[in-house]
UniProtKB/TrEMBL annotation:
<keyword id="KW-0472">Membrane</keyword>
<keyword id="KW-1133">Transmembrane helix</keyword>
<feature type="transmembrane region" description="Helical">
    <location>
        <begin position="119"/>
        <end position="137"/>
    </location>
</feature>
<feature type="transmembrane region" description="Helical">
    <location>
        <begin position="33"/>
        <end position="53"/>
    </location>
</feature>
<feature type="transmembrane region" description="Helical">
    <location>
        <begin position="7"/>
        <end position="27"/>
    </location>
</feature>
<keyword id="KW-0812">Transmembrane</keyword>
<protein>
    <recommendedName>
        <fullName>G-protein coupled receptors family 1 profile domain-containing protein</fullName>
    </recommendedName>
</protein>
<feature type="transmembrane region" description="Helical">
    <location>
        <begin position="65"/>
        <end position="87"/>
    </location>
</feature>
<dbReference type="InterPro" id="IPR051860">
    <property type="entry name" value="Plasmodium_CSP_Invasion"/>
</dbReference>
<feature type="transmembrane region" description="Helical">
    <location>
        <begin position="93"/>
        <end position="112"/>
    </location>
</feature>
<feature type="transmembrane region" description="Helical">
    <location>
        <begin position="143"/>
        <end position="163"/>
    </location>
</feature>
């Protein structure tokens, strides 16, 4: 019984401290480096491709429809008040302006915004997430694992070893 008590206490304390320190350091370093590198690369590539494709398609469709409707309505309401030319010149002007602006603005804004947002968001999110995850995971895992493993292993091993030895 003396040997079992001694071994249970010794092994529980030793293993709890050793494993908690070792695992907390190892896991915090490994996971922080791995996740920060992996997520920064993955998110930058994924978000840049996804956002570029999604935004370019979405914005080109949305802006072309929206601008063509908006410009045609706004021109039919506001331009007769401003333009006092003949009806044919007004009609030609509105058709030209609505077509030109809807196509130009939809293409320009879709390309510009998709490129800008994809680059900005991919860089921002990759940097932010890599820094955040590396710091957060290293601190959280080291503290959590050291406390959890030391308490859990000391209690579990002392009970387990005292019963079975």
């Amino acid at each position: 019984t003396y040997l079992s008590i001694y071994l249970s206490i010794y092994l529980s304390i030793y293993l709890s401290f050793y494993l908690s320190i070792y695992l907390s350091i190892y896991l915090s370093i490994y996971l922080s480096i791995y996740l920060s590198i992996y997520l920064s690369i993955y998110l930058s590539i994924y978000l840049s491709i996804y956002l570029f494709i999604y935004l370019s398609i979405y914005l080109s469709i949305y802006l072309s429809i929206y601008l063509s409707i908006y410009l045609s309505i706004s021109q039919s309401i506001y331009l007769p008040m401003l333009i006092t030319y003949s009806y044919t010149s007004y009609l030609q002007f509105t058709i030209y302006l609505s077509t030109y602006l809807s196509i130009y603005l939809s293409i320009y804004l879709s390309i510009y915004l998709s490129i800008y947002l994809s680059i900005y968001l991919s860089i921002y999110l990759s940097i932010y997430l890599s820094i955040y995850l590396s710091i957060y995971l290293s601190i959280y895992l080291s503290i959590y694992l050291s406390i959890y493993l030391s308490i859990y292993l000391s209690i579990y091993l002392s009970i387990y070893l005292s019963i079975y030895l």
